[in-house]
Amino acid sequence: MSKKILVCGGGGFIGGHLVKRLKSEGYWVRVCDLKRNEFSPSPADEFIVGDLTDPVICREVVKDIEDVYQLAADMGGAGYIFTGNNDAAVMYNSATINLNVAEASRLAGVKKIFYSSSACMYPEYNQLDPDNPKCSEDSAYPAAPDSEYGWEKLFSERLYLAYNRNHGIQVRIARFHNIFGEEGTWMGGKEKAPAAMCRKVASADEGGTMEIWGDGKQTRSFLHVQDCCDAVRQLMDSDFSGPVNIGSEEMITINDLAKLVMEIGNKPLSIKNIPGPTGVRGRNSDNALIREKLGWEPKLNLRQGLERTYPWIAEQIVKQLETVE
Predict the structure, then answer these.
(1) pTM score, whole prediction
(2) Where would I find the NAD-dependent epimerase/dehydratase domain in this sequence (predicted)?
């Protein structure tokens, strides 16, 4: 009988792709999420629509489960995370989910938990220079994330490591760096920068203007979801606990990201930089540790990932317009 796996947050973007990957590898998969997948039906063997902030739900979904992939969180793009307007909800919801999942897993005898942390937990003081951000795993302390989202991620990393030390549950922790791709949120305020750029370019009139928050000189790296799933599975099957970065080392300014999307969409626009939440000045994945421990490298560069994502978002815009009409 194949191993039984639970994916918390499997109705979301990364979780949905991970469920497809696990099913393709022959595992029996249960999903628990607040909502079903938005863009395609889940291939999960069992899909439970439930709120993981409820400990009763958590105890129910971990029954007979060997491995847990914990990706459920209250999150979004800069417009959701960095305004400060959602801090209490982000901290309460995500911390409660992780406390519940950790304890329910202990009680159920779960063998291994994967936890998806975030690069947002790295100290702001190491990310003030957009050209030379420092995001090696050992730079996490002294801690000083720039958002409550990052503080919660740091707390939950320590929570799972404590359960490993005190209760013997194996844990694997990854710090995601801006994962993007098809079937991700692309509108509504919770979308990440690549999706927002693709939407803006695809829906703009020829010769129009594209608004970008801040001066656009802030830097980031972005990893396609296919590569993310590859790395997660490699980490889970390894003897390495982490925390480890899962991201790309291909750093780019936000203005240049916009220009790259314009090239892919074959639609030159003028850029208008406006006030708005931007997060840290610079962030780039440091892949030295994952290269050493797992021998992992991304297969897709940023352009290749965007060439897959842009047509998908353009298609969603057309579908939306057709629905309105």
Answers:
(1) 0.93
(2) 5-247
